[in-house]
Design brief:
The complex is a heterodimer of chains A (about 325) and B (about 180). Chain A is α/β, with parallel strands linked by helices and about 325 residues long. Chain A contains 10 helices and 15 strands. Chain B is α+β, with helices and mostly antiparallel strands and about 180 residues long. Chain B contains 7 helices and 5 strands, in the order ααββββααβααα. In chain B, a hairpin with a 4-residue loop joins β1 and β2. In chain B, α6 runs antiparallel to α7. The chains are: A alpha/beta (about 325), B alpha+beta (about 180). Bound molecules: iron/sulfur cluster (SF4). Iron/sulfur cluster sits at the interface of chains A and B. Iron/sulfur cluster (SF4) sits at the interface of chains A and B.
């Protein structure tokens, strides 16, 4: 069994240092602009911050993967090219890309730096992954969260690159890179502007009875009674009234997080070479807890012991966890 | 794919911190908590944090002039924070004396303290409904990200300002937090 790389989120320099200290093999991060899919206010790295962070990570033996995983709108490609050139100058170890134009630019301009195919590219067949490998020399694919472990195992035999899968964090149901729900309501695109449910359009309203309504733009997307766990204000996790259903219901997905801790041995046996923790928008307290827990679990599996899995339920959305499609295609 | 950062409790019940207990044990007939005594202390605290962490202001973006209400729900007062490096403000107010504000962050005193100290995850607190945010969500997200990027413990910086008693109080509060997390 190959020792998998633990790939951890870093939304701020402090979170990156926390991830390195907690045992990350690699950290992924982005600049403070639309070139990455976590373009949230107050988050991400300035160029000088990334320069210092790369030096710190490398000193600790941790790789830095730069997320350039959004899709440039026509006429704005230069921002993505500049980000790639800056990342190359700062010595990042790999770029995570989704757009073929960005992939092509990096493959030609910085051929010595590894290219990883973002989950945002939604490449889920051997044919499409082989295409990216052949055309852009992609070294690793981050698989969409729609395949079972046996399907991943079959995939590993059919593609010429490494496989990275998510193991913990947000569980969005949509085909990654193609969800336009936020765009429909807010006018901003998750895939081009890098933000789902922009904070500027999110409002929480608590009534006197303690019920909490979540609004995005002009729409109420959920209302949690006083003792009910809450979720993120994303449309895919909203509760809706429709004529087809009695009462409000989660039409797409309920507030829930992915947690594959008990599937780790199977994933590693299936040929997954990198395990990704979602959550660049989360705090360093989250990074510390989740990275430490998975570091311990992976190390114990590699040592031939039963994995020691910490309880991470308190950190999950809606305080619920799922193994999603990794366990079964009918998880809902 | 992704979601929106928010801020908010782990599943636990909180035993009352000493300061909260003291302030809440005040008899009904007693005068309101002497907030004027707190104001110079709060001013010193916010100035010290700003001096030690000048980089944090960059993460506030356009919201550095926003007024945040920090509402420790188990204390008899709230704090108003304006994180403008040129016009810093952290003052205590009674709940019925509040002026206008942009955003309000409400939670127990201990949760808020541990949040600022980087020991608790704001989203987890939000999911468990132990933290409530109202008003300008973007401003809160910026403030959360600015505070979370501070490496050193803000609580320790503050405790150090009060010497041994300050450090002892912080140790007691942290123990209280550890205890409730293992309950
Ligand atoms: S609405 Fe849900 S699935 Fe769509 S981008 Fe946002 S988090 Fe992802």
């Amino acid at each position: 069994m190959i020792r998998p790389e633990l790939v951890c989120p870093a939304g701020t320099p402090s979170a990156m240092r926390t991830a390195v200290d907690a045992g990350a093999d690699a950290v992924y991060c982005g600049f403070q602009n639309a070139t990455n899919a976590r373009n949230f206010p107050g988050l991400n790295f300035t160029v000088p911050e990334l320069e210092r962070a790369v030096a710190h990570a490398h000193a600790g033996g941790t790789k830095v993967l730069l997320a350039l995983n959004t899709f440039p709108p026509a006429g704005k490609v230069d921002l993505w090219k500049e980000a790639a050139d800056t990342g190359a100058r700062l010595g990042v170890d790999a770029f995570i890309v989704a757009d073929i134009g960005v992939a092509d630019y990096i493959a030609r301009t910085h051929p010595d730096i590894r290219l990883h195919l973002s989950v945002q590219a939604a490449a889920s067949t051997p044919e499409s992954i082989r295409y990216y490998c052949r055309e852009f020399n992609v070294k690793r694919v981050v698989l969409p969260r729609i395949l079972t472990v046996p399907e991943i195992k079959l995939m590993a035999d059919e593609i010429p690159c490494e496989i990275e899968t998510f193991i913990f964090g947000n569980h969005g149901l949509m085909v990654e890179g193609r969800c336009s729900l936020t765009n429909y309501i807010t006018g901003l695109s998750t895939n081009m502007d890098g933000v789902c449910s922009p904070a500027a359009q999110v409002e929480y309203i608590k009534d006197d009875a303690g019920n909490l309504s979540t609004r995005l733009g002009e729409y109420t997307i959920d209302c949690f009674s006083c003792n009910e766990s809450a979720g993120y204000p994303t449309i895919c996790k909203g509760r809706y009234l429709t004529p087809a259903h009695d009462g409000p219901y989660y039409a797409f997905e309920e507030p829930i997080s992915l947690n594959l801790s008990t599937l780790l041995p199977d994933l590693m046996k299936a040929g997954v070479t990198a395990l990704k923790i979602e959550g660049r928008q989360r705090s360093k307290a989250y990074v510390k807890s989740v990275v430490s827990a998975y570091r311990k679990a992976v190390d114990s599996i590699m040592a031939g012991q039963d994995p020691q899995i910490s309880d991470l339920l308190a950190l999950t959305e809606g305080q619920k966890e799922t193994q999603g499609a990794f366990k079964s295609k009918t998880w809902r | 794919m992704l979601q929106q950062p928010t801020v908010a409790r782990m599943q636990h019940t909180e035993s009352k911190p000493a300061i909260a207990g003291f302030l809440q044990r005040r008899p009904r007939w007693a005068p309101p908590a002497p907030l004027f005594l707190l104001q110079p202390v709060l001013r010193r605290i916010v100035q010290r944090i700003a001096e030690n962490n000048p980089d944090m202001f960059g993460r506030l973006g356009p919201h550095y002039r926003a007024v945040f209400v920090i509402d420790p729900v188990n204390l008899p007062f709230v704090m108003l924070l304006r994180p403008d490096p040129d016009d810093l403000m952290l003052v205590a107010r009674r709940r019925d004396e509040m002026s206008e504000y942009d955003a309000r962050i409400s939670g127990s005193f201990l949760d808020l303290l541990m949040l600022v100290d980087g020991d608790l995850d704001g989203d987890a607190l939000f999911f468990s409904r132990n933290l409530t945010i109202t008003g300008n969500t973007e401003a809160v997200v910026c403030l959360r990200n600015a505070l979370d990027d501070i490496d050193d413990s803000i609580a320790e910086e503050v405790a150090d300002m009060f010497g041994r008693p300050g450090r002892a109080a912080l140790t007691a509060l942290r123990r209280m937090n550890e205890k409730r997390e293992t309950q």
